[in-house]
């Protein structure tokens, strides 16, 4: 029986990966303070008694209260400490230990087989403010380090955003791609070896583990989503140290393969919005040649191109037809832009566009980031091209698809549904969605792609 425990458990990607392995496992604990994530977790992995308990007012009271206290920038008062203790006792009433907070989570005496920590990524994400260890969420790593030191699990797995690698770069070593935050992580976690290199003089606070570090992309494991995450695998010193990262799988599935054929109207942008997009271009003017003809040579794409100002490079847009939709000939390039929420309230924001390569005889399915927002939160494209993997599913961006049929008709743009987002996280169809769309989007974006987890677990030799 594999004994596992996880912090920041979310909606149970670890459980999904273990179930896919087909091996019996015991959940010693799963920890998360988000009420809605806890509801989803219990609905999918708990008992009927657990679900009744999760839906109780007392459960929501403790979840909301613990979350509020946990994010305070001060030491809990006597009254708050008592509340946290009561919440921890309530967490023991489930069929497994289901603590709300890592700081109140009790450490089992018997070593786990696998410990998983996916501490919040917002502190290190490029899309966020990158507060790092100045953000209270950023110091949860040290709680996980304490757990490893005290429990001594056979294996541990950490997962976080790729931005963690470069967080807090040393200005005295600008060429070093690794920031000081991640250097501390690996220094403390890899007391024996790091990627096969023996540590000669380990830090006094380091745990005696062999660690392996790698950035893995979901597309390398058969999932059509461009989602890069850094993983750290730790192996206890007395365990066979023969870990090798899983081999990449051929990406045979495409984004269109995870889409529903019929989608509720609420996920589509309105016809008025599509018409606004078409006419908005006519209101723009430029001193440069605008738009560029297909045979023209493009100007320089600057470092600010992602902001898509009025002077940036644009490709000619085909004229619209009488019903308000654009049409395109297969093989043409299409330019598309979207207003943000401020624009829809009557204020015109900066223009944004992206060239789309329409070159499929069987129809086109183009991933769109933030389909109802003009600007996005980080550098890069808002559109991909036909056949490319989805953008990384996040807790903030809306995500959508641009669909063009084989006759060249441009359909309305819509958001991905929560179910489609979960498919892009490799969750099975039987996974139950018991929360609102807003919460489901957030939960999918905060999770881990199951296929990646599954492949790592297979490699550590459980």
Question: What brief labels describe this structure?
Answer:
alpha/beta; 462 residues; 14% strand; 3-stranded antiparallel β-sheet; globular
Tell me what you see in this structure:
The protein is built from twelve helices and 13 strands. The strands form three sheets. The protein has an eight-stranded mixed beta sheet with strand order 2-1-3-4-8-7-5-6, with helices on both faces. A three-stranded antiparallel beta sheet has the order 11-12-13, with no helix packed on it. By secondary structure, it is α/β, with parallel strands linked by helices. Helix 4 (57-70) crosses helix 5. It is globular and about 60 Å long. The protein has helices at 13-21, 35-45, 48-54, 57-70, 78-91, 140-151, 180-189, 271-280, 341-344, 418-424, 437-446, 450-460; strands at 2-7, 25-31, 114-117, 155-161, 193-194, 197-198, 209-217, 228-236, 333-336, 354-357, 364-368, 400-404, 414-415. 26% of the residues lie in helices and 14% in strands. The longest helix is centred in the N-terminal third of the chain and has 14 residues, at 57-70.
Short précis:
The chain has 462 residues and is of the alpha/beta class. The protein has twelve helices and 13 strands.
Helix and strand arrangement:
Layout: E1 2-7, H1 13-21, E2 25-31, H2 35-45, H3 48-54, H4 57-70, H5 78-91, E3 114-117, H6 140-151, E4 155-161, H7 180-189, E5 193-194, E6 197-198, E7 209-217, E8 228-236, H8 271-280, E9 333-336, H9 341-344, E10 354-357, E11 364-368, E12 400-404, E13 414-415, H10 418-424, H11 437-446, H12 450-460
Parallel strand pairs: 1-2, 1-3, 3-4, 5-7
Antiparallel strand pairs: 4-8, 5-6, 7-8, 9-10, 11-12, 12-13
Helix pairs in contact: 1-12, 2-3, 4-5, 10-11
């Amino acid at each position: 029986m594999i004994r596992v425990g996880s912090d920041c458990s979310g909606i149970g990607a670890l459980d999904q990966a273990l179930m896919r392995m087909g091996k019996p496992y015991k959940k010693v604990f799963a920890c998360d303070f988000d009420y809605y994530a806890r509801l989803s977790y219990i609905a999918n992995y708990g008992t009927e008694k657990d679900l009744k308990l999760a839906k109780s007012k007392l459960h929501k009271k403790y979840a909301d209260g613990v979350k509020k206290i946990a994010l305070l920038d001060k030491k809990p008062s006597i009254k708050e400490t008592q509340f946290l203790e009561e919440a921890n006792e309530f967490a023991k009433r489930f069929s497994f230990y289901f603590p709300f907070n890592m700081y109140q989570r009790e450490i089992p005496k018997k070593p786990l087989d696998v410990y998983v920590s996916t501490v919040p990524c917002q502190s290190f994400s490029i899309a966020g403010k990158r507060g790092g260890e100045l953000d209270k969420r950023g110091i949860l790593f040290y709680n996980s380090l304490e757990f490893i030191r005290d429990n001594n699990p056979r294996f541990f797995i950490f997962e976080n955003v790729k931005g963690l690698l470069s967080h807090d770069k040393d200005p005295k070593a600008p060429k070093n791609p690794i920031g000081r935050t991640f250097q501390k992580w690996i220094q403390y976690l890899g007391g024996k070896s790091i990627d096969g290199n023996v540590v000669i003089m380990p830090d006094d606070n380091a745990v005696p583990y062999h660690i392996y570090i790698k950035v893995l992309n979901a597309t390398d494991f058969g999932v059509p989503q461009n989602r890069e995450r850094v993983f750290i695998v730790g192996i206890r010193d007395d365990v066979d140290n023969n870990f090798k990262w899983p081999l990449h799988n051929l990406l045979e599935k495409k984004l269109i393969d995870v889409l529903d054929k019929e989608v509720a109207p609420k996920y589509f942008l309105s016809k008025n919005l599509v018409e606004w997009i078409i006419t908005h271009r006519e209101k723009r003017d430029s001193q440069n040649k605008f738009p560029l003809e297909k045979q023209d040579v493009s100007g320089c794409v600057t470092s600010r191109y992602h902001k898509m100002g009025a002077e940036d490079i644009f490709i000619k847009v085909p004229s619209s037809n009488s019903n308000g939709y654009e049409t395109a000939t297969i093989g043409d390039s299409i330019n598309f832009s979207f207003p943000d929420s401020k624009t829809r309230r009557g204020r015109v924001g900066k223009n944004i566009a992206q060239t789309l390569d329409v070159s499929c005889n069987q129809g086109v399915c183009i991933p769109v980031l933030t389909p109802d927002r003009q600007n996005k939160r980080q550098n890069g494209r808002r559109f991909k091209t036909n056949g490319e993997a989805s953008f990384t599913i996040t807790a903030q961006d809306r995500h959508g698809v641009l669909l063009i049929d084989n006759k060249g008709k441009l359909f309305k743009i819509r958001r991905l549904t929560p179910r489609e987002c979960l498919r892009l996280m490799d969750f099975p169809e039987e996974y139950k969605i018991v929360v609102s769309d807003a919460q489901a989007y957030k939960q999918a974006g905060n999770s881990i792609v199951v296929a990646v987890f599954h492949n790592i677990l297979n490699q550590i030799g459980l």
